[in-house]
Specification:
The protein is α+β, with helices and mostly antiparallel strands and 76 residues long. The protein has helices at residues 32-39, 43-52, 68-75, and strands at 29-31, 57-60, 63-67.
């Protein structure tokens, strides 16, 4: 039986993580998706944080907007 060298297989490059969006100082409110991206968490985690009262939201029709000040408070 022949032995095959493992070194012959080239390594795949490790992808760099995507940069998180920055919360602009003049931002008043964010969607739940934007909030998840800024905090670097999942949408489910954002929903849990809203349920626990860690994030303050305002409903406008069917939209749920997260107050940017509550996101800033979590980031500090």
């Amino acid at each position: 039986m022949d032995v095959v060298a493992i070194d012959a297989v080239p390594e795949a490059p490790i992808p760099k993580p995507a940069a998180r969006p920055v919360l602009a100082p003049n931002t008043v409110a964010l969607s739940k998706d934007e909030t998840a991206a800024v905090l670097g968490v999942s949408l489910g985690t954002v929903n849990n944080m809203i349920r626990r009262g860690e994030l303050v939201v305002k409903k406008i029709g069917r939209r749920v907007l997260v107050q940017a000040d509550s996101v800033r408070a979590l980031m500090s």
